Amino acid sequence: MAKQDEIQVALLGIGVIGSGVARTLLMKGSAYAEQLGFQLNLRHILERDLHKADEVPVDRGLVSDDPRTVLDDEAVDIVIELLGGERPAYDFIKEALSSGRYVVTANKEVMAKHGLELMALAQEREVDILFEASVGSGTPVIGPLRRDLSANEITSIRAIINGTTNYILTRMSKEGLDFDEALRQAQSLGYAEADPTNDVEGFDAAYKVAILASLAFHTHVQPDDVYREGITSLNARDFRYAQELGYGIKLLAVARMEEDGVDARVHPSFVPREELLANVDGVLNAVQVEGDLLGRVLFQGPGAGPLPTASAIMADLMDAARSVAAARAGRRGDRLPWRAGRPLRMKPVAELTTRYYLRMEVADQPGVLAQIARCFGDHGVSIASVIQKESDEVAQTAELVIMTHVAREESVQKTIEEAGKLAVVSRIGNLLRVES
Amino acid sequence: MAKQDEIQVALLGIGVIGSGVARTLLMKGSAYAEQLGFQLNLRHILERDLHKADEVPVDRGLVSDDPRTVLDDEAVDIVIELLGGERPAYDFIKEALSSGRYVVTANKEVMAKHGLELMALAQEREVDILFEASVGSGTPVIGPLRRDLSANEITSIRAIINGTTNYILTRMSKEGLDFDEALRQAQSLGYAEADPTNDVEGFDAAYKVAILASLAFHTHVQPDDVYREGITSLNARDFRYAQELGYGIKLLAVARMEEDGVDARVHPSFVPREELLANVDGVLNAVQVEGDLLGRVLFQGPGAGPLPTASAIMADLMDAARSVAAARAGRRGDRLPWRAGRPLRMKPVAELTTRYYLRMEVADQPGVLAQIARCFGDHGVSIASVIQKESDEVAQTAELVIMTHVAREESVQKTIEEAGKLAVVSRIGNLLRVES
User: In this predicted structure, what is the pLDDT of residue A332?
Assistant: First the structure.
């Protein structure tokens, strides 16, 4: 039987993050009990691979590979979901909420795809789903957005929310490495996975910005609504030119509330070097939020790792535990309400207006610039500066680095398409957007 | 009569911040009502100077200069205290809590001196006192410390929490201005008051770090426990030398939990230029918190201004309003408990160990450095570098800039005292501590 002064916790998944949570509970459980006024008791661990538990000093009797053993136990008050991926995590969370349990999760994919539905379900069952760890690991972002900034109309979010790519970009920038070499370094240090697609193609950041935009704008931005470009085509030269021009290159996740819709994007961006965001290096994460009252505020901290993630999960766990205790005492905690999602138009990237950086290889001969400039002018894209970079004497080509004034993405794309057809243009290099 | 679906709010003080709050309530009241599910009704404004209300578009019938009219009205649910200063603010807050009202305040002096007592009183009366606006205006700091970081043992806080001095130091650093000139600029822009003592002597920052340290370490750090030095003796030369040595100069508020006690200080510090804190410029605030699980996290944003402050106050107001509504529905909100203060030893600054920067004027003649170096050696203070700066040919003096290795403050102070007595030392300039 569960004791009255104990809160019963089930942990789903005991991988890297799950074992960090289990260790933290063991190590600091008595300190938490003192804070809360009651014990947090780890009652079940669900794990397909029973041997994984061997590395964590937990009672083997707690570990089961049968979801029913865990989910059917009525004594469980709070379920911590750390399985990752969409299924079966989504089904387990839904079942836990439906049966009146609080859920704490670090699952960005489930929250990005099903957050609205799960929060509505939690509210209906008078419980809550807490997911601070899903964005920025232990760096507080979700909590501040839901509570501390709630008096603001949020107008924009600009974030570095993938530590793997930020590590790679930092190495490319500081050491002049190419992407492949920087990726290998990241892999050897454990900062990138063997298959790095999820990170380097921006899927992970797109999940996270979908969550942030949904909370900030009180709507439901789906991950598929987020325009996405990865960092694999970036080149050491881009970093050299960016530096000369006074910029850093970051994989920014951006969400803006504009009059004609929500603009949500993940792509490598030029960031002015004097901005703090341009100076967030290595595996750190940073989220900048702009609100109508507050102006700009920035949260910066670790974006990954078992202990920082456990920091967020344990804070959510204690929050949920206080509500469980209040409910036992016959009071329902005043949970933060989730404002029903209002449908908002998603702005296609074609409607974006910003400044652009473009690198292209052209024939090293007179009259070339005039042809290219005409092509830009024809589409109403105004050139701010052109720098001719090193020439390849064998191929008789030169490299042009073009910065535009503010232009419309659609026009810029048409310009590039047309410029690419010019006989004097041998290759269109990277097109990068400026975020400031 | 107060309506059941309305929350009744009393505002004490309608100065710069108070009128920002009143305007925000008028402008965004319906948006907040939608979020909350009930109206926030501004029922009273207490203000000694009745003419102040003329500048705010509120019903003049709400304004009273009689505290009894406001505090004796039993319909009031939430009191927003924006009078500033210790008295009568402290008495009004105490009375409001005693009679079962929630209190929202921006008052750093009251919270630093009486926070523990007021929070205990609130808990006893089953209400709460919310004070996010007391540190860093709208930048979330108190909320994250109380909730999001609650699973951590906080080990240190390093903060830039006074916008006025940070503006002055930024001007001194970027434009080579002297303190007096930078202060005049700050005053003409409204960033510094006519009597700037509270800011430039570090009192304001000492209040704020006392609040942060009390929350972080679960104790009660009094403002008088905080070692305090202002910025008035800083000189354009200090900034030049700092830059040459790779540092910025910031008025840092520091609180560390150490084995032998709490180390809490406010003084100008050398900060390595590669740290984000060294790059927080102008009137911005930034708070860096270090915890055992999380590592370091940084919150950065505006540190003053009526709208950013209103952002924090309105978020606290909505938080309190949700609890009032829960209480009316027969449920008591599960407020965050305040852990009873444990008495901790305060470490005197004499026990500090860090690196030091010291500037002194000495006779420009052979053998001087040997005498000074011996003086340092006698007290066990190891010199890391000495740079001899410009000489004054008329006075026949030279300026020495000394960086020490890690040393004990007590020894450094004795060294300086003794060096000051040497015939070859004509003046001891600034002594600054390095924080990294």
Answer: 60
Beta-carbon contacts of residue B259 (< 8 Å; ≥ 6 apart): none
A-interface mutation test, from B24, B131, B294, B335, most A Cβ less than 10 A away: B294
Measured distance CA(A184)–CA(B177) in Å, rounded: 48
pLDDT (tens digit per residue) in A97-138: 999 999 999 999 999 999 999 999 999 999 999 999 999 999
How far apart are alpha carbons A227 and A263 in whole angstroms?
Answer: 9
Is A94 labeled as catalytic in the residue annotation?
A: no
Which residue in the set A37, A299, A315 is minimally distant from B147, CB to CB? A315
A397 in contact with chain B, both atoms CB, cutoff 8 A:
no
What's the gap in Å between the CA of B320 and the closest CA on chain A?
A: 10
Query: What are the tokens at B295?
Result: 């590592």
The per-residue pLDDT for B393 is 81
Q: Which element (helix H / strand E) includes B362? A: strand B356-363
In tens, the pLDDT along B52-70 reads 888 888 888 999 999 999 9
* Inter-axis angle of helices B108-124 and B89-98, nearest 10: 10
CB of B151 within 8 Å of a chain A CB? The answer is yes
Task: State which amino acid sits at residue A220.
Answer: H
Query: Are residues A302 and B300, on separate chains, in Cβ contact within 8 Å?
Result: no
Which residue ranges of chain A lie beneath pLDDT 70? Answer: 1-3, 331-341
Residue among B60, B48, B115 at smallest CA distance from B88: B48
> Cβ A28–B299 below 8 Å, yes or no?
no
- B301 Cβ under 8 Å from any chain A Cβ: yes
* Per-residue model confidence (pLDDT) at position A343: 78
A326 at interface of B, judged by CB pairs closer than 8 A = yes
Set A208, A347, A389, A414: catalytic member:
A208
Residue carrying structure tokens 């201005």: B177
Q: Which of B396, B400, B394 is nearest to B365 (CA)?
A: B396
Q: What is the pTM of this model?
A: 0.92
So which residues of B are the catalytic ones?
A: 208
A57 CB-contact burial (10 Å; exposed 0-12 / middle 13-18 / buried 19+) = exposed
Residue B29, chain A, CB below 8 Å: the answer is no
Domains and CATH numbers, chain B: 6-137+305-328 (3.40.50.720), 142-302 (3.30.360.10), 350-434 (3.30.70.260)
Q: Is A190 left (phi over 0), alpha (psi -120 to 50) or beta?
A: left
pLDDT digits (tens, 9 = 90+) for B6-36: 999 999 999 999 999 999 999 999 999 988 8
Q: Count of CB contacts below 8 A, A vs B?
A: 186
**Angle (nearest 5°) at CA A269 between A266 and A271:** 130
Encoded tokens for B243: 């830059």
**DSSP-assigned beta bridge partners for residue B263:** B256
Q: What is the residue whose two structure tokens read 């004990």?
A: B408
CA pair distance B92, B95, nearest whole angstrom: 5
Q: Does A342 touch chain B (CB under 8 A)?
A: no
Q: Average pLDDT for residues B241-258, to the nearest whole number?
A: 95
Distance from CA of B340 to the nearest CA of A (A): 10
* Interior angle at CA B431, CA B426 and CA B432, nearest 5: 155
Complete DSSP assignment for A251-302: EEEEEEEETTEEEEEEEEEEEETTSGGGG--TTEEEEEEEETTTEEEEEEEE
Residues of A in contact with B139 (CB under 8 A): 294, 297
pLDDT of residue B410: 96
Which tens digit of pLDDT belongs to each residue from B380-420? 999 999 988 777 788 888 999 999 999 999 999 999 999 99
B378 and chain A: CB distance < 8 Å anywhere? no
Give bridge partners of residue A292 from the DSSP assignment.
none
| Mutate which: A27, A104, A293, vs B, most B CBs within 10 A | A293
Our CA-based measurement puts residue A358 at a distance from the nearest CA of chain B, in whole angstroms, of 30
